[in-house]
Amino acid sequence: MDFVTAPWEHLFMQRAFAVAVMCGVVSGVIGAHVVLRGMAFIGDAVSHSVFPGVAIAFVFQFNLVLGGAVAGLLTALAVAVFSQNRRLKEDTVIGVFFAAAFGLGIVILSTAPGYSGSLESFLFGQILGISDGDVLIVAVMGLVLLLVAGAVHKELVTVSLDRETARAAGLPVFALDIVLYALVTVTVVISLQAVGNILVLALLITPAACARLLTDRIGLMMLLAPAVGAGSAVVGLYLSYTYNLAAGGLIVLVVTGVFVLCWLFAPRHGLLTARRRGKPPVDRTEPAAPSKAAQAGSSPTG
Description:
Distance between the termini: 64 Å
Order of helices and strands: HHHHHHHHHHHHHHH
Radius of gyration: 20 Å
Largest sheet: none
Structural class: mainly alpha
Strand content: under 5%
Number of helices: 15
Helix content: over 70%
Shape: globular
């Protein structure tokens, strides 16, 4: 019982649990769309693209999170625009812009002596040092993200499963791309305090990858991913408090351990489960229910 109750006696741990659970839930939901789209690289790209914004904010002494969010959204918009040329694959455009953004951040920071120590919390997270204001910001932004994701859920899934059919059905594919990139960007920014810039990709992608292994139903995947993310964050914080180790790193290691277990023992798609049945894993992803916009544009003459 001491293991369970002791961390809750400290205010900083209560804040950490609140932010960790909220980031786990939001990252799980948004990450599920990222995994369905097959664009896991965007999480890494966004986490690097916020770097010049943070660098500018550091040099001019204003909010680092705000600076990172602006830079991330601008980079995401650039990726969405340049990805419309289907000659280049989406991951190619992402690679170009995240490398450029990271390089710009390095150049900007080189003008500010003594910056490395000050940005340590940005790179590795500071979940045990957050304030009540940080908790409120994460809660408000997280709620907005979930509401927006719920409002365009069917449309995002439709574009993820069949982009050309979605365009032929009249869905605004370019606008939906921008919405998804914006959702990913804000999710990454609010998760930086939990696990830091270096490890934020794991919180965005790994819970969704676990859910992808556990179910073929998209609706259930959207529930399992945030559950895995939030649960792993809580377990990681308990281990961090008990053994006095880095919280962000332990959260990532826990969720990675869950992924390995899912990869081995998932009921339908686990490696060992499939071998016991004598059949290879089969992908039976449930197609998304058509949105009203898709139904309206799916006539034989359309």
